[in-house]
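Hi D.,

Good news: the full-assembly prediction came through. Inputs first.
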Amino acid sequence: MTPGDESDLGRPPAGWRRRAYEVIFESETPAGRAFDKFIVAAILVSVAVVVADSVQEWSSRNRRLFDAAEWFFTILFTVEYIARVVSVEKPWRYVRSFYGIVDLLSVLPTYLAILFPETHALIDVRVLRLLRVFRIFRLTQYVEEYQMLGEALAASRRKILVFLSVVLMVVLVLGTLLYVVEGPEHGFKNIPTSVYWAVTTITTVGFGDITPKTDVGRFIASVMMLIGWGTLAVPTGIVTAEMTARRGIGVFRSRAGRCDKCGVGGHQADARFCRNCGASLPEPAGAE
Amino acid sequence: MTPGDESDLGRPPAGWRRRAYEVIFESETPAGRAFDKFIVAAILVSVAVVVADSVQEWSSRNRRLFDAAEWFFTILFTVEYIARVVSVEKPWRYVRSFYGIVDLLSVLPTYLAILFPETHALIDVRVLRLLRVFRIFRLTQYVEEYQMLGEALAASRRKILVFLSVVLMVVLVLGTLLYVVEGPEHGFKNIPTSVYWAVTTITTVGFGDITPKTDVGRFIASVMMLIGWGTLAVPTGIVTAEMTARRGIGVFRSRAGRCDKCGVGGHQADARFCRNCGASLPEPAGAE
Amino acid sequence: MTPGDESDLGRPPAGWRRRAYEVIFESETPAGRAFDKFIVAAILVSVAVVVADSVQEWSSRNRRLFDAAEWFFTILFTVEYIARVVSVEKPWRYVRSFYGIVDLLSVLPTYLAILFPETHALIDVRVLRLLRVFRIFRLTQYVEEYQMLGEALAASRRKILVFLSVVLMVVLVLGTLLYVVEGPEHGFKNIPTSVYWAVTTITTVGFGDITPKTDVGRFIASVMMLIGWGTLAVPTGIVTAEMTARRGIGVFRSRAGRCDKCGVGGHQADARFCRNCGASLPEPAGAE
Amino acid sequence: MTPGDESDLGRPPAGWRRRAYEVIFESETPAGRAFDKFIVAAILVSVAVVVADSVQEWSSRNRRLFDAAEWFFTILFTVEYIARVVSVEKPWRYVRSFYGIVDLLSVLPTYLAILFPETHALIDVRVLRLLRVFRIFRLTQYVEEYQMLGEALAASRRKILVFLSVVLMVVLVLGTLLYVVEGPEHGFKNIPTSVYWAVTTITTVGFGDITPKTDVGRFIASVMMLIGWGTLAVPTGIVTAEMTARRGIGVFRSRAGRCDKCGVGGHQADARFCRNCGASLPEPAGAE
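Then the structure:
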């Protein structure tokens, strides 16, 4: 979910494309800032329209208004998408980037809805475009927090993957077990359904649309719940350990905390000498 | 939820307002303490009355008693509110403070109930006034724990906000997806309802009043549950890392806490000798 | 839930009471060990009888057998209780201790069942007597872990109490809000019921026996779920921070790690000098 | 769930058994790698067949195809199992190992299904054989993460056991309490069922198939939920504390890692100079 950086799409050297790039992708100029704010407002209104459109009482009364609004925003965002493509040096990189895909998905469903009417609600994937907000409003501090979260998750990625694959195997085996024990007459009508049930159980969601009825099934379910409850500790432990470690080296984390000689950062809070080259470290900016 | 400090509302210099202030806002004098205890008792009884009033069997039998009690407490707290307003130097600051708003909300619903009868139960917001208890009974230690919690949450505020906004976007997109996949015939009658369902799923609450019925819907729901389960690690990680750091550091965090002889820092809060070289440690700058 | 220590109940100096004490309360002698094992077996069998008795199909067929077994174990444990009371120096202290209360509750329901038949199932509170197992089988290591858990919880007691009281207030206010918004026609029939619902929601249990039906109610419920989800981080953070801190000072925790001069323990893992008196610390028993 | 190491099953010194061992148990040779990949593909396809077979619409149409596939894979894995047994020096150790049992359970249900038709779905326990994937594809890094997880869990094993046994006692007592309070007419038809309900409540799963209906029952249930919610912190705290400690310590934990000049220990794993005095650190005893 880490939205990609958009600074490497290639800034055109000069001409109208350069000006378009500055307005569309950057927010240093007044025009760029106005454009960004306009787009944010348009996204919010268009998502509100989609949500309101799904409410039967409202949509049946204002059919025409909703249709007009949907086409207005779709054409607006389509024009914006084309403008983004033509104003970068490496359009293909933009198209394949996280935001490029989100921008495309924000307009496609309306066109697809001509063929498959029920899909048009999917255009509210455009709400993901708001992730750009962090950049637009120069919420640098927020972005830092954000990156810190992203880094902690990224650093735990492999651990989480291994954990998830083991969970999936366990869920498949336990789901099958319940399918055999309870059978279709108690709602466990096939293995995919039983696996769905096993996931609701082990994640402690517990919808209750399918529940074991036999004593054996309930015993196995109880064991599963206790396992799931305890296992929840694992991803939490992974992320927390990562974050605690990151926070523990907090003081020297900023650029000022880097060693002046060899450039290594991430020293412990009470470090006075670089752990890499032994040079004296700069004093921290002030005791917090 | 951090209740504001009430010491900056302006203590009148002398006269009856000063005496009223000492009784109402402070608890140093016997009168002040008696007043505080009386108010706490009144809050508890009045909340009990509201709760009991909502139980059909009791309220129909004792209609008059409940009505009398409600008006008695409402008038009592109204008088108290007016007394609080007139006895501080900066009444406006009090009115806009956390407790000022809670105190007002504690009496308003009874008056509103003359116009909108069903709202009168809302007066049990007055239970929040009990937050003052921590101050009233001089539970200084408790307040310290409380502030520590508040600080840890406040320090994680930005991280939590960023996290929450991303969760909200994800929930909106996934809710819409299920609305498209399942449709109104399976209970996902519009996008707000689907988003409500997505929230119950991703937070692992899982009421089960709305559940996916199609295989595709159940597959997406399973993925959501696993995401929600793993994501729960994030706020926990944030708060835990913050708390671990706070607990581990203690008094000697600043550079002044380093040992003069060997220079080691990061001593425990109650250390008097360096754990590394045994030299006497400098006194902490002031007991926090 | 921390079971009390039973070593301060007063060991009789000599005579038959001393011998009884050694058999009943201690497990140093062969007789004492045999007695303990017999009691553990009796507890397990008697609990199994109670559980089996509650299953309609079995109990109706073996009514007499179950009744006989229940009275047999009740009389056995009653005799044991009396023996425990008479064989300690301070019987009153035993009666009021954690185990004294549990031992009494293990026999009372059978007698009460003569007056109130349905209460007899409560005698399986006697399963709590198994907590003594940790001591009986000299699972010293297990007990240490256990005490460590207990200490971490005890150290966080105040923080958890403050947290819980705030949660209770929030739950009361939110439950009332839903009662006003949804009303008795959607299952929120009175404030106690609404508070029960609010607890199921905020703890992410989500039974689904009562669920909001209106859009406003669902919106408030969604906010509550997100709050509850995030708030779960708080008790976890409290306990984890406590445990991390305790584990961090792990190496020197055993008695050998105490300072020989002043007796202070709990030094940091890399400490070489006592933080309290500056004396040199003994070497750790071996690098783990 | 930690899959055992398979390197101690005894590698035959020479001959056809040595070659068979190299192909079947190792993946150093091209033939060994091809064999491993073939088996992984066979497992995936066979599990997919079992899952698809459970879906009524598909299985009734392709009865013969599914039966043929099931027997094909069962015979294939049976031959593989026999080959594994005969090609190791210590066949008995293999048979009793984690993978030996999984390999056997992967074929047994098909044979058993001749006698008990409904059990055949259990053969998808063969998905557990995929745990070998980590070794097969030389995902050494992944395996390391995996072992780290396993070690953290193993180190917390005793603490978790103690915790679990206390939880089980509490669940039994509380389940009985609800059985007495609510009784069979509200779904709590016997103690095992009530204990099942207590587990769903305390683990915050909350299916909602059984729920308290009386006010007293709901009050007790609310207390249980709050307990369960808070208690969730305990396993999380245990695992997190273990993981934080492991992550924070690294190579230099032992005394040998102390700085020779100032004596400070606890350096980061990649430190080459003392963070306190800047002196060069001794080399770690061996890169783990």
